[in-house]
Structure formats: C-alpha cells, structure tokens
Design goal:
Distance between the termini: 26 Å
Number of strands: 0
Helix content: over 70%
Strand content: under 5%
C-alpha cells in the first residue's frame, strides 16, 4: 500500500506545485510522472535493502532462473525508469514517454511474482497484498503510466 500512497501523495503535491506556476508539473500527466517516479524509487529500494530484498527474492516464482539476479535487475530497471520519468523533455526528448512505457511493460512482467506472493508468501518480509487488491493497484499503476506515456 505504501507505493500507492507515495504515488498519490507525491503526484498531488506535484500538481499543486504546478498550479502555482511551476511548468515542470503544470499538467496531470507531468505530475503523475513525478508521483510514479517517487513510487518506483520507493519500490526499487526494497530490491536492495534487507530484509525486504529477501522477501522479494522469496516471491519470485520457482520456475524463474536466478531469483536474486532478477530482483537486482528489476530494481535497477525501476530506478532507471524513475530517472527517465523525471528527465525534462528539453534534455532528452521522449525520455518520459519511453520510461512510462518501459515501466508499464516491467509492471506487467513482474505481476506473476505478485500473484505468486499473494498465493504463497513464504517469507516474513514478502509482500502480502491480497491478489484482488494487488490487481486493482496494478491497474491503477498501469493507468497512470499510460496517462504519462500518452499525454505528456
């Protein structure tokens, strides 16, 4: 639930800052990009910091090779995506849009681990979000990424 709170809180703060005149966040898609970046920095931190890292390794489905490496790779991709979401278009045109699409694909690719966690969390630090709620949150996160990708 913390990622959702980060997305909403930071996204709303960014939008308020935009309403008072900061061009960088002067629209909902731009504010959502900042909220998503905050969310992905938060979630990426769990990929590297104990004991959450072991919890994430525990939820990687058994058929996936080298769970530790996968957790590291997905954490790095989340950080790279967050940086892309924050990259001003004047620096790298299209970076924000590419990052939003890339993170959307990453979220879809990681969803099986979330399904596995909901069904068989076997580590005390593994995410325990029920599957129905996790699915709804996933739809919200993907929708925000789609807004950023399509309207920035």
């Amino acid at each position: 639930m913390a990622p959702f709170i980060a997305l909403v809180a930071v996204g709303l703060i960014a939008r308020v800052v935009g309403l008072i005149g900061v061009d960088y966040v002067n629209s909902w898609p731009k504010a959502l990009a900042v909220g998503l970046a905050a969310m992905f920095v938060l979630t990426a931190s769990a990929h590297f910091k104990q004991p959450r890292r072991d919890g994430l390794i525990a939820i990687v489905p058994p058929r996936t090779p080298n769970a530790r490496l996968m957790v590291t790779i997905t954490g790095v991709l989340e950080l790279v995506g967050a940086a892309g979401l924050l990259t001003p278009p004047s620096w790298i045109p299209g970076a924000r849009i590419a990052a939003a699409w890339g993170l959307g694909v990453l979220m879809i690719g990681m969803f099986p681990a979330n399904m596995y966690a909901a069904r068989s969390a076997r580590h005390s630090h593994a995410p325990r979000t029920p599957l129905a709620l996790r699915t709804v949150l996933q739809i919200v996160f993907l929708s925000c990424a789609a807004v950023v990708a399509g309207f920035t």
